[in-house]
Amino acid sequence: MSFELHIPEGWSQVKLSDLGEVNRGRSRHRPRDAAHLYGGPYPFVQTGDVKASKGRVTQHSQTYSEEGLAQSRLWPKGTMCITIAANIAETGILTYPACFPDSVIGFVADESKCNVYFIEYVFRLLRKRIQAQASGSVQDNINLQTLERLLFPIPALEAQNRIAAVLGELDDKIHLNYEINQTLEQMAQAIFKSWFVDFDPVKAKVNGKQPEGMDAATASLFPEKLDSKTGIPVGWSQGVIADIAKLNAKSWTKKNQPEQVHYVDLANTKNGVIETVTSYDFSEAPSRARRILNSGDTIVGTVRPGNRSFAFIGDTEQPLTGSTGFAVLSPKEECWTSFVYLATTNDDSIDEYARLADGGAYPAIKPVVVADTPCAIPTKDIAQKFWQLTGSMLKKAHQNRLENEELAKLRDTLLPKLLSGEIELDISEVDLND
Questions:
Q1: Which of 52, 100, 121, 282 has the fewest CB atoms within 10 Å distance of its CB?
Q2: What is the pTM of this model?
């Protein structure tokens, strides 16, 4: 199967099986059918994990036990995963040994013949064409035979290494920013839980201790006891998010429509990360691309809320437009900004939204359910201190996301040019520290 790519002089076209081992993963049971196979120490990577990996599998949502491993296979670090069902032709290279099911094909490169990262980049270039071949089939999938017919254009190994290094340096920075953002998110959530769920600073003062990791000025803002009836700190109130934020349902209409919308969709927003912003002329935008988003807003997906589609909206040059499937919360005062975001997107809140969702194949909640999230509301001076501390984390994560957008554009511009031989770059020409 050839895709009419320009093949530079000196390059060859080979099958994937000519470059290493190609085999399907193994998994004979679904989690609900054989619970004893799951929950152990062995990573079990599924199609959704590969799709979310952006080329490098660094996390997974399921694990195998010893029994699970016995009926599967532990693929080595460096294996390229290729999805052949559900999310077709998505790829990701394992950064650790892992198992995966038969909906994923594994490619173990012969390092004397090819650079696995180069092959993964070729796959990115061919992905849409492979998906087009599968579109319209009974299950919209591909198989080993499909891959066996696919011809890969490759140069000499030295050239593969050079191209992979140039593109990989961009991906390294993108993944580093992503990891930093995950850490910032976890830090902010940990502080929120400590201050406003577990009330650690207050409990420390009750016991005559200095709150751990907190300066004296900040500690002095917290009361010294809990209310015996409510269990929350004295002077705080038990309320809901709607007490400190407005549920924003403002949408673009034909009367106030912009020329373009920069669209944030549910599917491209996961765990606090807006992965993709797509620009449309207003007349060509999806009908759901209507919700007006402002800096400081929190967006929480109300359709299939268990999918964890949520994010903080930072400052952007272009105003963003969100899906009507988001609940949009605008803090009534700036000091409540990070409090609103962290209160509605922590694990407990998301799990509760998922529990309350109904509607069959597309379970959903009304936006007011998010607005009615219960919370212990502190005094404003504590909220201000919390915003100073965690707001900088949210803003840094937002800047990292913007940088990743630019890095991804550069990578995606270079990818076809490098793989067609149109340009050649030395590694020294790409300096990400400028």
A1: 282
A2: 0.84
What DSSP string runs through 74-121? -BPTTPEEEE-SSSTT-EEEESS-BB--TTEEEEEE-TTT--HHHHHH
Residue 420 in this model has a pLDDT that exceeds 90: no
The contacts of residue 48 (CB under 8 Å, 6+ apart) are 61, 86, 87
Closest CA to 371 of 244, 270, 271, 266: 244
| Domains of the chain listed by start with CATH number | 12-154 (3.90.220.20), 237-377 (3.90.220.20)
* Structural tokens at position 272: 């606090």
Q: Which two tokens stand for residue 266?
A: 């549910």
The answer to whether residue 274 scores a pLDDT higher than 90 is no
3-class secondary structure for 31-84?
CCCCHHHEEEEEEECCHHHHHHCCEEECCCCEEECHHHHHCCCCECCCCEEEEC
Half-sphere exposure of 228 (CA within 13 A, CB side): 0
Is the model more confident about 9 or about 122?
122
Residue found under tokens 């988003």: 293
Which of the residue ranges 50-59, 121-130, 203-212, 362-371 would you say has the lowest mean pLDDT?
121-130
Q: Is the pLDDT of residue 410 over 70?
A: yes
3-state secondary structure 168-205: HHHHHHHHHHHHHHHHHHHHHHHHHHHHHCCCHHHHHH
Residues 6+ positions from 234 with CB-CB distance below 8 Å: 223, 224, 225, 226, 227
CB distance 337 to 345 below 8 Å: no
Instruction: Give the number of other Cβ atoms within 10 Å of residue 222's Cβ.
Output: 25
